[in-house]
């Protein structure tokens, strides 16, 4: 039987905009969190790409990555992810080639094929909405080619600042599509189980069974993103989690809003149907005291055998959010696969 090992813990930040606060406040909180988890030994700090959401400030992903990387020293900083259909592959190669040259061996490039917004906003982003997601595999390959040396390059155009720069490319997904593509290309795979848990197990099975070793990766490597709200007691964590519940309630209703302060109870704020819909999306939300979360997290790792856990925390109070990661950091030394 193989020897057990502790798995890596990382962070995904949507850079939430808090009720009664500004995006500038959110950027400061993001850097504060990154510096905090770096000291705690977390492996990477990723920033999402979303658009036209009142409560999310992670829109200019590469700019924020530079801001976070400049304010930290060793933690890996990357995109979780860049929604590639919104961008020309050459532009992303130039942006991340620049970041990778300034912060060597610290930048990750996670790629997704969704727009990260609604279709009207997607059009405002100047996307070619028709067929763009179908072109995703070719766009990924084109993007990766820009990082090759000039001797290996297969494209006419050059991203000179990216050539030979080592920026690991990840594929992100919430279905089996990206799992298959990551397996074919021999890339690490991150699954968005923090909001789309349904296809997690099928996607992981497909990725592992069909994985083809590449110049980038010899064996399959899986990261699962989950929600994490930790506190000193279960009751305290459940109250903090009402901000998370209100966030998902807004998504269900199509009502974009800033991250709301916690409330004593959700009864009266959502209907039974909305509650059920939210909890279905939040199947992999680990909420509670250290011991409660430890038991549930270990069961999740035993079941999925993931190599890395990435936590996103919709916690309104910054001190409570930092303390939540303090508790998760203690678990990092106890959870193993």
Task: Describe this entry's structure for a reader.
- This protein has 337 residues and is of the alpha/beta class.
- The protein has one domain: Luciferase-like domain (TIM Barrel).
- 41% of the residues lie in helices and 15% in strands.
- The chain has helices spanning 23-40, 61-70, 89-102, 119-124, 136-145, 176-185, 200-210, 234-240, 242-253, 272-281, 290-304, 318-332; strands at 8-13, 44-47, 76-83, 107-112, 169-173, 189-191, 222-230, 285-288, 308-312.
- It has an 8-stranded parallel β-barrel with strand order 1-2-3-4-5-6-7-9, surrounded by 7 helices.
- Helix 1 (23-40) packs parallel to helix 12, helix 6 (176-185) runs parallel beside helix 7 and helix 9 crosses helix 10 (272-281).
- It is globular.
- The N and C termini lie close together (12 Å).
- The mean pLDDT is 93.
- This is LLM class flavin-dependent oxidoreductase.
- Residues 13-299 form the Luciferase-like domain.
- It comes from Heyndrickxia ginsengihumi.
- InterPro entries: Bact_Lucif_Oxidored, CmoO-like, Luciferase-like_dom, Luciferase-like_sf.
């Amino acid at each position: 039987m193989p020897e057990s090992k502790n798995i890596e813990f990382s962070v995904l930040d949507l850079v939430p905009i808090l009720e009664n606060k500004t995006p500038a406040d959110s950027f400061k909180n993001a850097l504060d969190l990154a510096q905090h988890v770096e000291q705690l030994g977390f492996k990477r700090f990723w920033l999402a790409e979303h658009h036209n959401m009142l409560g999310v400030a992670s829109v200019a992903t590469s700019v924020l990555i530079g801001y976070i990387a400049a304010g930290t020293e060793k933690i890996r900083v990357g995109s979780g992810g860049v929604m590639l259909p919104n961008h020309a592959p050459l532009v992303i190669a130039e942006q991340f080639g620049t970041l990778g040259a300034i912060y060597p061996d610290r930048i990750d490039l996670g790629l997704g094929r969704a727009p990260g917004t609604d279709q009207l906003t997607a059009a405002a982003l100047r996307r070619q909405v028709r067929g763009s997601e179908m072109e995703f595999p070719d766009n990924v390959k084109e993007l990766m080619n820009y990082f090759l040396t000039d001797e290996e390059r297969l494209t006419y155009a050059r991203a000179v600042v990216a050539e030979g720069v080592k920026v690991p490319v990840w594929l992100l997904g919430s279905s089996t599509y990206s799992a298959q593509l990551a397996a074919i290309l021999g890339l690490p795979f991150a699954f968005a189980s923090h909001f789309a848990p349904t296809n997690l197990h099928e996607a992981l099975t497909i990725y592992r069974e069909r994985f083809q070793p590449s110049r980038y990766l010899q064996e399959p490597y899986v990261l699962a993103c989950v929600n994490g709200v930790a506190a000193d007691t279960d009751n305290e964590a459940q109250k903090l989690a009402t901000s998370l519940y209100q966030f998902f309630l807004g998504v269900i209703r199509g009502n974009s809003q800033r991250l709301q302060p916690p409330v004593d109870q959700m009864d009266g704020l959502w209907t039974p149907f909305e509650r059920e819909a939210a909890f279905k999306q939040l199947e992999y939300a680990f909420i509670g005291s250290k011991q409660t979360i430890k038991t549930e997290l270990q069961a999740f790792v035993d079941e999925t055998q993931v190599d890395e856990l990435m936590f996103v925390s919709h916690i309104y109070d910054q001190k409570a959010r930092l303390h939540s990661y303090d508790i998760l950091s203690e678990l990092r030394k106890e959870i193993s696969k």
